[in-house]
Amino acid sequence: MHKWWRSPGPALLAAALAIVVAALRPATEHAAAKGRPPLRFGPGGAFKVALFADLHYGEDAWTDWGPAQDAASDRVMAAVLDAENPDLVVYLGDLVTANNLPVPNASLYWDRAVSAARGRGVPWATVFGNHDDMAFEWPPEWFSPDGVPPLRWPPGPGSGCGFRGTPRTDLMAAETGANRLLSYSSSGPRELWPGVSNYVLQVLSRGRRARGDGHDHDPALLMYFLDSGGGSYTEVVSSAQVRWFHTQSQFLNPDGRIPELIFWHIPSTAYAKVAPKAKSEIRKPCVGSINEEEVAPQAAEWGMMDALAKRSSVKAVFVGHNHGLDWCCPYDGEEREQELWLCFARHTGYGGYGDWPRGARILEVTEEPFSAVSWIRMENGTRHSDVTLTS
Amino acid sequence: MHKWWRSPGPALLAAALAIVVAALRPATEHAAAKGRPPLRFGPGGAFKVALFADLHYGEDAWTDWGPAQDAASDRVMAAVLDAENPDLVVYLGDLVTANNLPVPNASLYWDRAVSAARGRGVPWATVFGNHDDMAFEWPPEWFSPDGVPPLRWPPGPGSGCGFRGTPRTDLMAAETGANRLLSYSSSGPRELWPGVSNYVLQVLSRGRRARGDGHDHDPALLMYFLDSGGGSYTEVVSSAQVRWFHTQSQFLNPDGRIPELIFWHIPSTAYAKVAPKAKSEIRKPCVGSINEEEVAPQAAEWGMMDALAKRSSVKAVFVGHNHGLDWCCPYDGEEREQELWLCFARHTGYGGYGDWPRGARILEVTEEPFSAVSWIRMENGTRHSDVTLTS
Prior knowledge:
- Chains A, B: GO terms for molecular function: hydrolase activity, acting on ester bonds.
- The structure is a homodimer.
- By secondary structure, chain A is of the alpha/beta class.
- The first copy, chain A, is built from 8 helices and 15 strands.
- In chain A, the strands form 3 sheets. Chain A has a 7-stranded mixed sheet with strand order 1-5-6-8-10-12-11. In chain A, strands 4-3-2-13-14-15 form a 6-stranded mixed sheet.
- The longest helix of chain A is centred in the first third of the chain and has 20 residues, at 65-84.
């Protein structure tokens, strides 16, 4: 999928042309409009996604173990990318722990998180979690006689007396700015603010050369990214986002022919409904390996789950947030031909709570016939929890 | 006290000279160094302060009653200023309810609060409360189908997708900027950040003409203003602030000859110790009229109360924060010649919780012999709760 990057000459030319084309037509949420080559199923007919969830970069920069755990998170992602060689990385929120960051701008830490994909030429997409734009929380002990420890990231000039977190729009602008052609992330429509990471990516059919039928511009998979809130505002998918999803899906996929997958950070309340009892064994039809805590769901449900359940083209939802859960369970709220799967990713970063071994959920989609399978790849190379999401 | 304002020619000349002098000597926290005429006891030997506490401007700008209650707060201050004609207004924190303000910069609301003093040519000083730099808290119902109500203060350009509160340094810079010669507020030393409103004002002796003894540059009262935190950080007076107070008081008043008064927003834990039982009658030695709630004290005590109690020159501490308390009680934690009084102000604004009638604590200090008396002036003109703080 990312082979274009290995021959930069034509790729850059194509990207430049695409930028010109983009300037001449109305803006859309499609990555193609941003000057990036389209995502596309590979010659083998598959498209593989690695989900990196809850990296939590930037904790305790004033200690040794803070930077050390960030280095450990680098190694987890490197191990997974070595083992899986995905076509796309989805960063599933909480890339940074902004409430632990006494810096005027968290983009450097955010950049370190996405550099795992960028450094290997792998396209990536991000959604916001509840920690990414949080304001710094002053440790109470800094007001005691011990005072403020020496900081490795001192406040720059003009940073004022507070560290208010970096607005989602600023983090996204830094990620997707000039010369960031591997980022497929996007700031969604302004009417969805304060939610920002609301956009759609399409993965095109594998193309003429392989199939010879002229369908190389047809999308064969739609991926919807949504901002589930938190940090600077309520942890919620809003009613406005539900309307946006309805409009987008009707426009891009009116007959539901194209399979659809959904990505956001905080589990919806539906996750709590399908969850196996916390700390109990995970039994079929659920599949997973850790079930160590209660689901910590969004604050309210304003209709997104109903909207998803009604579309049989929607196959699965992927979230992070709960570091102690890695299961997939079917959601049986509606009559559907196939299940709608609700999946947790796997805690990928050494930042954030929990000491469960780190890994990443992998998702492999096949174009014809459509199938979606998933498993978890651990830092130590092992693989487990294989599940078919299109049975 | 503010008569200099009525003859602007000499006053402006003096201010310009003071600026030149200030540029030639090390910066101090003294108002004189900022080009403002010194505060001074009046010809009658008295100096009167009005304390405006918890105005909470800017609530519910998207309704009718939000702006209406701000107008009501304007009227309370006008009534008190008409009745008392003070020499100084102290705004004792929570001038605005920033967590209710969907605006990129709260300085316009802050400015409305201080305009009560400015409009009458009365000098003023401010300290920060816990609501002044809070980030906007998105109402959960704005994510429902009802959506976001029409805002009377729409976000300006460049405001991003979040309203993160206006940093204390920005609020103070706007208040004390060019042509604000009536503001005696100051941003304290950077080493006290995130606390900002840490500074000392001195009130000079009533001067040569009245006394004929050449002591017209002698300070006869020191007023210490401290930032008791909250909002963007912990509600606390830090150990660093205690050290700063120690250094300042030793420098300005080494022999404790000059009486000292203290102003901050959030009651220290000592207030909870001396408080009459909530909702009980206020009995001597305490003096006040409402006692309707528990003291909501700072999160920790890092030594400021001990530092104050040790200095017999410190006569009283004044705080706001608890809208349902207006008493003064003596603090008997240390052996002292005179009591150290701990006083609440009176809820002045129509913003903020509580429907107790609005008013303002008045403080009148006499130079020779030194005395400090206080009472509460209500919006309706009545006066009550007279107390002598130097008996």
